[in-house]
Design goal:
Elements (H helix, E strand, L loop, with lengths): L4 H14 L6 H9 L6 E5 L5 H7 L7 H8 L2 E4 L7 H14 L5 E5 L2 E2 L8 E5 L2 E4 H8 L5 E5 L1 H5 L12 E2 L1 H4 L9 E3 L6 H13 L12 H4 L30 H4 L34
This protein binds iron/sulfur cluster (2 copies).
One iron/sulfur cluster binds next to loops.
Amino acid sequence: MKISRRDFLAWTVAAGVALNVEFNLDNVNNVMAAETDPPIIWLQGSGCSGCTISTLNVTNPTTIDNVLLNKISMKYNSTLMTASGDLAMQTLDQSATQYKGQFILVIEGAIPTGASGNYCVIGEVNGVPLTMQQAVLKYGPMAKYVVAAGTCASFGGVAAAAPNKTGSSSASSILSGKTTNPVVNLSGCPVHPTVIIQTLLDLILIGMPAVDTNHRPTKYYGATVHSTCERRSSGHCYEDEGCRGPYSQNVCSTLKWNNGQSWCVHNNYACIGCADPTFPTTPLLSGAD
Ligand code: SF4
Ligand code: SF4
């Protein structure tokens, strides 16, 4: 099903209203009138590509193919794009150069710094390997906004778990003091699809969001999953089993996953705190033996 650009933006406004976001309709109209949206360049470092896959799960009320083909100008994402080799790397650099100061850089996965960054090479330029660390340091300062998609990019996550032999680090650590705007962290393992898509649209339509002490948008990370958990008064709470819901801010118990179908606790498992700066802990459930 194809929907119009106007329908799509109407949805973003409706979603924003549902999340208590105030939209400036002048900004909406400006974006609707623009021939092109500020493009998005999406780099993937040390991760599992799960955040890209999660993003693909936005299907209601529109499908991700419609988002990517008609609504967001995605210039580079090595999982989604068909280009490869020199063509891909040229597209990356030309897009960043052409839209310097305008584009949104999304960083997925942590950034290895060990071995001069060579634990993660994202391509070659003139036969010379380009590490994720080099790419982030080059394109981060050129971007208008930088978004860390997922816990690995936000805080190091699984990639930086002890003993962290690769020296993996978060996007905000690598880019500290080097960006036009502070890195927006969208933690979660993976990031929730509505959170990433809506944040990209918010940046285009509104600008920088209000953030918490972990630089995450407060409208998505302002409440713990515990605060609206269906098991709070049911007598079947997982707190004694080590559920991290009381300490974990995310949208799971409100927006849920898989098109609003379910979430961890609804699926009969405790929250393991996948959006926390300390994730992954050992053991995953703090009350477990
Ligand atoms: S199951 Fe977890 S999130 Fe739900 S009420 Fe119990 S401690 Fe809170
Ligand atoms: S309920 Fe907890 S572990 Fe599950 S997705 Fe949400 S934050 Fe992550």
